[in-house]
Amino acid sequence: RAVWHSLDRRGDTETFRKELAWRDFTDGVVMALPDYADRNGREAFDALPWRSGKEAKADLKAWQTGRTGYPIVDAGMRQLWTTGWMHNRVRMITASFLIKHLLIDWREGERWFWDCLIDADYGNNAVNWQWVAGTGIDSNMFGRIMAPLSQSEKFDAGDYIRQWVPELKNVSDAAIHDPDEAGCRPKAYPAKIIGHREGRERALAAAKAMRG
C-alpha cells in the first residue's frame, strides 16, 4: 500500500499500477491453487491433443534456442537466454508461438521461462502462460492466435532483431521481419519451422478435436 500511495506524487503511473494489481491477482490465484503451474485451470483443456514425440522435442529445442525462422521469436528467445529478460510484448509473442503455432504444451514454456528469467515469479509466470494458452481461470481465448510477423512489423523497426539475430544484420528493414518470404534469407539462418497459416489451422483443428 505504501508503494501504491507513493505513486500519487509521480507522473503517469497507470501502467505500473496495473502491473501491481496483476501481480496481486496472480499471487491470489496460486495461493488458492498452489499447483497452478502443473495443471490446466480449465479442465476441458486436459483433452487438448498437444504434440509430443521426437519432432515436437526438436521444435521445442528450436524455440528455446531461437532457431524457429521467425526473427521476432528468435530475437526474444536469444535475449532471454543471454540476459534472463525480455519485454512483456515479446514474452507474449514467443509464448503464443510455442503454444499455438507449434502446439506444444504451455507447461514446457512455463518451465523454460521459470529457469531463464531473472525476474521469474511463480504466480506471474504460471498465470501468464495459462492466460496466453487460454487454459486458465482468467485467460485469453485459445482461438486467438497472434501473428508473429504482424507483431514484429508493428513493434520493431528492425533494430531489436538485428541486435539479437546477427545473421540478419544486413537484411533490409522491409525484409527483416520475414526474410524467407522476401527471398533473402541468409544460409546461416534457418527457414521457418512452420508457416503461419499451417500453424494456425493446426491449432484450431486441435481445439475442435478437444471439443469433440
UniProtKB/TrEMBL annotation:
InterPro entries: Crypto/Photolyase_FAD-like_sf (IPR036134), Cryptochr/Photolyase_FAD-bd (IPR005101), Cryptochrome/DNA_photolyase_1 (IPR002081), DNA_photolyase_1_CS_C (IPR018394)
Amino-acid positions noted as binding FAD in the UniProt annotation, renumbered to this chain: F16, D119, A120, D121
GO molecular function: deoxyribodipyrimidine photo-lyase activity; DNA binding; FAD binding
Family to which this protein belongs: Belongs to the DNA photolyase family.
GO biological process: nucleobase-containing compound metabolic process; response to light stimulus; response to stress
Protein name: Deoxyribodipyrimidine photolyase
Domain of life according to the entry: Bacteria
Residue ranges crossing the lipid bilayer per the database entry: none
Site note Electron transfer via tryptophanyl radical, residues: W50, W106, W129
Native organism: Sphingomonas sanguinis
